[in-house]
Amino acid sequence: MLSILRSLVQEVNSARDLQEALDIIVSRVQKAMNTEVCSVYLLDPASNRYILMATEGLYKDSVGKVSLAYSEGLVGLVGSREEPINLEDAPAHPRYRYFPETGEERFRSFLGVPIIHHRRVLGVLVVQQRESSRCFDEGEEAFLVTVSAQLAGVIAHSEATGAISGLSLTGEETQDVSFNGVPGSPGVAIGTGVVVYPSADLDVVPEKPTENIEQELELFQSAVQAVREDIERVANRLASQLRPEEQALFDVYLRMLDDGALPGEVAIKIREGIWAQGALKQVVQQYIRHFEMMDDLYLQERVVDIRDLGRRLLSHMQEGEQKLQEYPEHTVLVSEELTPAMLGEVPKGQLVGLVSVKGSSNSHVAILARAMGVPTVMGLVDIPVNQLDGRELVVDGFEGQIFASPSSDLRAFYQAICEEEDELIRGLEVLRDKPCETTDGHRVSLLVNTGLMTDVVRSLSHGAEGIGLYRTEVPFMIKDRFPSEQEQREYYREQLEAFAPNPVTMRTLDIGGDKALTYFPIEEENPFLGWRGIRVTLDHPEIFLVQVRAMLKASEGLNNLQIMLPMISNISEVEESLHLIYRVYHEVREEGYDIHMPKVGVMVEVPAAVYQIRELAERVDFLSVGSNDLTQYLLAVDRNNPRVAQLYHSYHPAVLQALVRIAQDAHSVGKPVGICGELAGDPGGALLLMAMGYDSLSMNAASLPKVKSVIRSIDREWAIQLLEDVLLLDSPHVIKSCVDLALRNAGFGRYLRPVKSSSAAMAEQAVS
C-alpha cells in the first residue's frame, strides 16, 4: 500500500490543475481498493455546499451538478462529524440522501472519510460497493484515511490557485480571497503583485571533482567580487530611504563575503579538488544546517541571507543572463523567500508591500521592511506564489493577511485604513520626548529590543528610554570564529554610546544545543531542552570571561551597562556567573579602567525560574521576563511550527497567572522586574503588564509610540480592574477579545484592527 500511496501522491502533485488531480485520485483509489465507486465531494466556501467534483463508477454527467447542503446526506454527516463513516447498508441509514442523476441506488456499501487541512474540512472522499455483504475492513478504512491526509495539502493548494484566479468550485466569480500568514511589518498596502524567483538553484548542483584548481578558484573569486559589487549597488540605491546605521544589514552580507568567512571555506574545498559550484553548495548547505538548528528566531532567520548569497554566487558562476524585471508604480513584491537584495532592485518610491512564503518577523527582510515602513506578510505557507503575479493585492501587515483581486468595497475599506494610519503616525510623533506615565502618575519605562545598529536609530527616534534586550549573538554570527575581545568591545560600545546615559541591557551569549555556531557545532536529540544559554558559557568560562571583559571595557566613561543571564533554571548558575563577573570586574579595574560595577539580572524564561523568583531576586539587581520563550515552554508550543502555532497565545490564562506571580514575588523582595517580548509591544498586553506591576516594558521600536499613547491616556486603577476581570476567564481568545473591547470602549479602537465580516460591512465601517 505504501508504494501505491507514494505513486498516487507523486501523480497528483504533477497534475496541471485541481480537476486533473481529483480525477487521478478517484481513478487510482478505485483500482487500489478494488471497489466499484470512488468519488470526491469538495466543500464550496462560497455556497457552503458539498459538490460532486470527480467520480469513477457513478454517472459522469452528475459531476459538478450534484450538490448537498453542509449537513445533508451521508457526505454531510462525514464532514460535520469530521470522522470516517463505514456502512454495510447505506440506503437503510436515516441520513441517506438519494440522487437519481448519479445512479448510486445500485450501491449499498459506503465508506466516507473527511479531507481536512489545518482544521478546515475541504471535502469528503467516498468509496461504494454494490454488494451489501461487503463491509470495508479496518485496513481499507485506514488506507482511505491515509490517502485523504496525504492529499489534503495538495487539494488546498489547488483550491487556492483556483480561488486566486477568481473562480469558485462551481465556476462562479469570487472576490476578496484571503490568505493568512504572519505579520512581518505593520501597515496596509494596495498594489500589483510582482513575483520574483531565485536566480539559481544550489540544490541541483552535482558533485564532481576538478583538475584545474586555479581556474575554479579564479571563477569563484570573480563571482565573489561581482556579488560584492551588486550588494554595494543595492545598498547605495536604498541609502536615501534608510539611515546610515540601518544599512548595517548590508554590511552583514559583505562581512560574510570576507575572505575569512564563507569564501575562505569554499576556497579550501576547491583546493581539495572539488569544482567551484560543488564547493559552494557544500559550504552553503553546512551553514544552513547550523542556522536552521537554532532556537533564537532572530538568528534562525539568517538562513535566508546565507541561501541568497549562495544563489547569487552560483548565478554569476553559471553566467546566467539576468532577466530584466519591470516594476509597476505600486509594487507588492512576492517570493518564496524574499531577501534584502530583492528589495533593493525595486526603483525608489515604487515598493509598497512585501509578501513571502517563508520567513518570520525576525528575518532581515522584516527588519528592513519595518525600517522602511513597508507593510509585510511572511509565512504564507499554502499560497500558490506564481498565481499572484500581476494581480491586485491588499497586504494587511497588522493581521498577517493578504487579499487577491479585492472588490471595490474591500479596497475602499483598506484605503481608509491607510489614510488613518498616516494620520495616526503623524499624531504620535509629538509623544517622543514625553514620559510614559498614566493619568494618575504611575511611571513605566519603555525600552527596546535590539540586535543591530539598524534597530538603534529607529528606537531613538521613537523615544525609547534604553535597551531592554541586546542580543550579543550577532557579532558571533558574522564570524567564522569566536570574535576577539577587541571586536566584541567595538560592537558593544556602539550600542552603549547610542543610548547613553540610558541603560543598555546586554544578554550574555545565548547559544548551544539548537543554536550552534558554524565553528562550534553541537548536535543533540532534544535541543530545546539541551546544552544551551548559560549552561554552555559556564561550561566554557573562557568564552564567558572574554565577553564580560569586553562589555565592561566598552562601558568605560558611560556606565550604562546592565548584564543579563539567559536560560537560568538554578540558583547555582546565578552564583557561579556572579563570581566570574566580579572576578573580571576587579581585573579590569586593576588594568586601569575607570568603570562601575554594572547591574546584573536574570531572564525568566524557563518555568522553573517562575517558582524561584524570590531566591533569584535576592542575588541579582533586576529580573526580566522573556515572555516569548516562557510562553512556548509553559504551553509546550513551538510557534514557528504551523501545525501547532495556533496554540501559542500570549493571553493564555496560564501565561498571565505566571506573569502576575513573577511581578508579585520580585516586588516582595524589593527588586525591579521588566519584560521583553511581543506581549509588551501589544497595547492591550502592555496595559495588563503595567497593571501587574512591571516596571519596564521592552519591545520592537515600531510598537513603542502606540503603547506610550495608550498608557498616557488611562489611570492605573482602570487597568488593574481590567486585569482582575480577565484573570477570571479561562480562554485566551475570550481574554483577548475582552481586552480589545475595553480598549475600544476607552477610545483606542484606532490602534486595533477592525473585525472583518463581509465586504459590505467593511465598506459600511469605512464610510462611518
Automatic annotation (TrEMBL):
Family matches, as SUPFAM superfamilies: Enzyme I of the PEP:sugar phosphotransferase system HPr-binding (sub)domain, GAF domain-like, Phosphoenolpyruvate/pyruvate domain, Phosphohistidine domain
Cofactor: Mg(2+)
Record domain GAF: where: 17-165
UniProt GO cellular component terms: cytoplasm
Reaction(s) catalysed by this chain's protein: L-histidyl-[protein] + phosphoenolpyruvate = N(pros)-phospho-L-histidyl-[protein] + pyruvate
Places the protein is found: Cytoplasm
Cross-referenced InterPro entries: GAF, GAF-like_dom_sf, PEP-util_enz_mobile_dom, PEP-utilizing_PTS_enzyme, PEP_util_C, PEP_util_CS, Phosphohistidine_dom_sf, PTS_EI-like
Annotated keywords: Cytoplasm, Kinase, Magnesium, Metal-binding, Phosphotransferase system, Pyruvate, Sugar transport, Transferase, Transport
Entry's EC annotation: 2.7.3.9
Pfam families associated with the record: GAF, PEP-utilisers_N, PEP-utilizers, PEP-utilizers_C
Enzyme class: transferase
UniProt-listed PROSITE patterns: PEP_ENZYMES_2
Molecular function terms, GO-annotated: kinase activity; metal ion binding; phosphoenolpyruvate-protein phosphotransferase activity
Any one GO biological process: phosphoenolpyruvate-dependent sugar phosphotransferase system
Major subcellular location class: cytoplasm
Family: Belongs to the PEP-utilizing enzyme family.
Protein name per the record: phosphoenolpyruvate--protein phosphotransferase
Annotated source species: Marinobacter excellens LAMA 842
Taxonomic lineage: Bacteria, Pseudomonadati, Pseudomonadota, Gammaproteobacteria, Pseudomonadales
